[in-house]
Amino acid sequence: MYIRGDHAELVVGGRLDVRSAADARTVLHTAVDDGVGDLVLDLSELDSWDATGLGVIMGAHRRAGRCGRRLVLRGVPPQMQRLLVATRLHRILAIEGGIGVETLPRV
After folding, report:
1. Could you read off the pLDDT of 45-94 as tens digits, one per residue?
2. Suppose 71 and one of 62, 64, 76, 83 were both cysteines; which one would form an S-S bond, judging by CB atoms 3.0 to 4.6 Å apart?
3. What is the mean pLDDT of residues 6-16?
4. Secondary structure letter of residue 99 according to DSSP
5. Partners of 72 in beta bridges
6. What phi, psi does 69 have (nearest 5°)?
7. pLDDT for 38-54, tens place per residue?
8. If we measure between CA atoms, which residue out of 40, 48, 35, 45 comes closest to residue 12?
9. Using CA atoms in the order 62, 64, 69, 72, what is the torsion angle rounded to 10 degrees?
10. Which of 33, 59, 96 lies closest to 6, judged by CA?
């Protein structure tokens, strides 16, 4: 897993899972704490995430809200969009361009 960027936009790539969660949490919390306005997470280079990785995203979302910021997801891959829909988190998280629920393939 790698994260590059600054306090306004971060690109997350690789696997966001139990092995990388602690490092990702540290980077995301620092970015939230050090910036103002929207924090954009570009997930277009993310290969996969598990429940722990999704928890890291949700934790960053809550922390951003407490800091008066908004976490915005960009470039969410289709398989991860399906997970967000299945967990109904697409209703809570800000997703650039939204998720076309009706266009997602059924699994």
Report:
1. 999 999 999 999 999 999 999 999 999 999 999 989 999 999 999 999 99
2. 64
3. 93
4. -
5. 40, 94
6. -115, 175
7. 999 999 999 999 999 99
8. 45
9. -80
10. 33
Distance CA 46, CA 34 (A): 24
CB 104, CB 78: distance < 8 Å: yes
Cα dihedral 44, 34, 83, 96 sign: negative
**Amino acid sitting at position 22:** A
Side chain identity at 63, as an amino acid letter? R
Q: What is the spatial distance between Cα 76 and Cα 80, in angstroms, rounded to a whole number?
A: 6
Strand-pairing partners, residue 15, are 48
Residue found under tokens 């969410």: 76
